[in-house]
Structures are given as structure tokens and as C-alpha cells.
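# step 3/5: fold
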Amino acid sequence: MEPIELSVVIPVYNSEDTIGAVVEPILHLYNALFSLEIILVNDGSTDASRQECENLSNRYANVVVIHQETNGGQQLALMTGLRRCQGNLVVLMDDDMQNPPSEIIKLIQKANEGYDVVIGKRMIYNQSLIRKLVSRLNQFLVFVSTKQKISFTNFLIMRRAIVTMIIKDQSPKPVIQGLILRSTANLANTLTEHHQRKNGKSNYNLIKLFKHWLTIVRYYMPPFVKYFLFMLIIIVALGAATGVYFIIDHFRRNWS
């Protein structure tokens, strides 16, 4: 059996309208260039994504489908795909066409310069203000921890050696970015196109984004930064509570 050169791992959640538009261009563009496999991890979708994935698998021999009966989240779905994939190079990407399949070649070309991991950096940030803020915080933390100005997105490529290290993690709540930063400092960005979501909406709201960011922190933040962040949160919370107390007290005095 021919060794797999390129794996593309795609977590799928309620993307019945887009998953075919992601998978088929990948096959069209890269089947002739690489020994290719596509791993679709259906993460407990409640629409027709399950059947769409099965249709693609039945149509194309190198499309593999894994069904998770409950929604465990994007990070767990990615870990499932990483444990199943076999490629020497492994691409991670979303199921919503925000990263065009034609941009994968840019990741491959940059990785061929000798990097362990290459992350797509958006040319234009088609993001909400909240997501931009979280991205900036994330970039700051990566710089504090690695002294590198690296932007992380969900569109990236890594070598087999990095995958092998990542899948050793047994955490119930893994974070791929944190595991990458634990595994290597040989990282790079490359500019890639980023499109607006064609259908549906993001599964991340403000609370989920903040929780995800806090989960990332434990993987690679130096102890002194953790303590600083913890104290900052306490000070902000106490300040907010004090402000609320004085406002309530002010109105109470005026009403009495």
C-alpha cells in the first residue's frame, strides 16, 4: 500500500451545505499531486451532515468518515482525526469554506522550507470585534511564551513527528495550539485568503471563546504570567463589585 503523503483532517458539525464544497475541491486539486486522504470527523451533527459525509466516503475511496455520537467540541474532534490520519504532512481546516482548499498548497510550500508547523495567517481579518480581541490576546500570550510573533488560526499544517507527540496527550480537554507549542518552536506563518462564512454561524460565542482562551493558557503560559493574569482578574472583579456596591448605595440613599 502506498504511504500517505498528505492527510487533511476536517471536524464536521452541522455543515450539510458546505462539507461537499470543501472536500471535492481538495480531491480535485491534490489527488494527482499527493497520495492523499481526507479524514472527516462528524462531531455529533444534528442536521444531514452525517449522510453527506457518508455520501462523500462512498463516492471517494480516500475519504474516511468517523462519527462521534455526541458533540465533544472541535478540539476533541481534531484529536480523533489526528489519531486516525497517516500522512507525512497533516492539514487541519474547518468545514465552512472560510479557508479555500486552494490555499493548502501555500501551507505545503512553506512547510517544505523546513518548518515543523505552518499556520495560515489571514490576509484580511473577516472577524467580529470580539474574535479580533481574543486573537490579539492569544498573539500576546504566544509572544510572551515563545518570543515569536506567531498568529494561530484553525488552518495549519504539521509534520508527522509533531502529530506523534500531540496524540500522546490524554487530557479530556485538549487544545491543539497548546500541544503544538509544547512540541516545537519551529513555527511559521504564511499569508492565506480567508472568506466570510457562507452558511450558518460560528459555534463560538463570547463565553466559549473566553473559556477556550483560558484553557490555552495552562499549556504554555509561564508561571509569572499566570499569577499576573490571576491577580488582574481578581482586581477587575473586586473593582466591578465595588462599583456596583457604590451605585446601589447611592440610589438607596436617594430613595430613602
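# step 4/5: annotate
The beta strands are 6-12, 36-43, 63-68, 89-92, 117-122, 156-159, 187-192.
# step 5/5: archive (pending)
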